[in-house]
Amino acid sequence: MQTVPITQDGYAKLEAEIKQLKGPERQRIIKAIAEARAHGDLSENAEYHAAKEQQGHNETRLKELEDMFNRAEVIDVASLSGDVVKFGAQVTLVDEDDEELRYQLVGAYESNVEGGKISIVSPIARALIGKQTGDEVEVRTPGGNKSYEILNVKYS
Question: For residue 42, is pLDDT > 90?
Answer without folding.
Answer: no
